[in-house]
Amino acid sequence: MENNTPIFSVFLHVMKKKIMDEHLKYFESQGLSKQHIPYMMILSNHQGGLSQTQIIDIIKHDKAHASRALKELIELNYAYKDNEKGYKNKYYLTDKGFEIAVKIKHKNDEILDEIFSVITEEEKHVLEDILKKVVEHMNQ
Hints:
Layout: H1 5-29, H2 37-45, E1 50-51, H3 52-59, H4 63-75, E2 79-81, E3 90-93, H5 95-115, H6 121-138
Antiparallel strand pairs: 1-3, 2-3
Helix pairs in contact: 1-5, 2-5, 3-4
């Protein structure tokens, strides 16, 4: 694995940069910043809503960062929350927020299709299985 570490690190950096650069172009046109991306993506995958604690557990950001990003999404009318007190509030995307998240997901698909166009379907499945295994291990 030692010989592969540099290329793996480069791969992760290039992939993240490519995806973030594309997202930022669109997000900035909507008055959003890169800090909002993970929150919108997570909420779009949980239409039944999530509490701030659940969001933090998934995204692995601190409470202050999450509070700030969620507050801004609400102020921009991309998200809303229940009227529960404390951290029991559930957060949801508005229709407008969900629309943006769907566009970002489509853009993700385009970017990933382009990035992985050089490998076969079989290689994609093998890579996906490997990445799932690594992510599961990291989440333990």
